[in-house]
Amino acid sequence: MAKITYVEHDGTEHVIDVKTGLTVMEGAVKNNVPGIDADCGGACACATCHVYVKDEWLAKTGSKSAMEESMLDFAEGVEANSRLSCQIKVSDALDGLVVNLPESQH
Amino acid sequence: MSDPAHVVILGAGHAGGTAAALLRQYGFEGPITLVGDEPIAPYQRPPLSKAWLKGEADAASLALKPLEFYPENNIDFRAGVTATKLDRAAKSVALTDGSSLAYDILILATGARAIALPIEGADLKGIMALRTAADAEALKAAIGPGKTLAVVGGGYIGLEVAASGRALGAEVVVLEREARLLARVAAEPLSTFFKAYHETHGVRFELGCSVTGFVGTDGRVSGVKLADGRTVACDAVVVGVGVTPNDELAKDAGLETTRGIVVDLDARTSDPAIFAIGDVAHRPMPIYDRMFRMESVPNALEQAKQAASAITGRPRPTGECPWQWSDQYDLKLQIAGYAFDVDQVILRGDPATAKFAIFHLKGDQVQSVEAINSPPEFMMGKMLILNRKPVDKAKLADPSISMKEVAA
Q1: Given this structure, which CATH class describes domain B127-241?
Q2: Which pTM was predicted?
Q3: H or E element: which one contains B261?
Q4: How many CB atoms within 10 Å of residue B250?
Q5: Which residue of B has its CA nearest to A66?
Q6: Structure ipTM
Q7: Span B344-388, pLDDT tens digits
Q8: Mutation test of the interface with chain A: which of B69, B75, B378, choosing the one with the most A Cβ atoms within 10 A?
């Protein structure tokens, strides 16, 4: 279990207890957090679960696969701390994680 | 909303379930009733032929939302029931459990059903469609090492099942009526590529063959009869030859239908109090200047957004480019757009490397792209389809020129 804070683009915060083994995307979608669309359900096919990971958490969220890297390269508003949240597995080590959501998912 | 209306959603698939959740996300406060004919809450169907079949996903991970989501959000979810009659004058629907529901706003998300082959032996045990979690459960139990699975229909469902069947150790034979795989939905180079790729993974193909019936032993299927007289031995059969929309309820109630329920850009039917979304809707797609029916998750989600936006008075969502995906073995296929009115097909990359894309053009505009293990081609292709920008065909055909430069 990890407490994850999802911050919408307008600043609205959602603090969710996410079970170990789920992804950061699933934690948001299953709790109806707006701002993460996740059209493909986690298949790394759509880049609509884009989040910004707070710098101090970047190392703990692991590295990007070539597929994720490639999808992100073409998503809108990408920054150095951009990740696809369907590719981040939740573990106890991510307790306290904060992710910011982009204005839109395209 | 000042006067919360009662929204009834018929169909608890990806479209119906998403519409219910979005209405709450968009601040709708009235009562919502979500009616589904399956025994379980809305779930994702795509993994049924992929991760789920291979045992890599469980029921909880398939669910769109956890079960407690519905009561917590004041959504009355009714499982295992379906509507038998729609009375538009009385604004009520009759259900199979004998009850009826009055609505102010109705959303029809009744989906589509797999077409069954009207041939001899089609009712034998072991002959299945793959549409629901229950179908997938039955299929999973029927295949494994030492078993032979016959797949009737070389479309995406058939090919995904074939790949998953091989992963589970079954022998797999795909029987296709047309001379090539994916004949209705993909370009020829893609058909050729998929056939070869599946063959290296041990799948057998019979193309241009007509299935005339099934034979069985003790009520269970043991073979597929072909028109040329041969019988292909098997232990189980998956039939994936397309779907038909569940639009009868709407049609009987006098709504405009044409192999699907006709809707406008807000997903509204010819009755202003009734919306139709997902596989059942025959809808406008402005970038192609025509109306058609789509069977995909992104389509279900987009239309759920359209209906929920219209109901809550939000602006209509914009910037839609239809897309879909398929996973087979280590291949990721991403398709953007539809190949309407195409006069030229451009291959970018070499299929022998299992990393290439096929662009379909109308003049110098991209109408659709099929990308194998090529996210840049998919992502930029999607953008080009949406913004209708003319492309330099020579650059597009040259994989040494980046997609960013092609789209610049």
Answers
A1: alpha beta
A2: 0.95
A3: strand B261-262
A4: 28
A5: B375
A6: 0.91
A7: 999 999 999 999 999 999 999 999 999 999 999 999 999 999 999
A8: B378
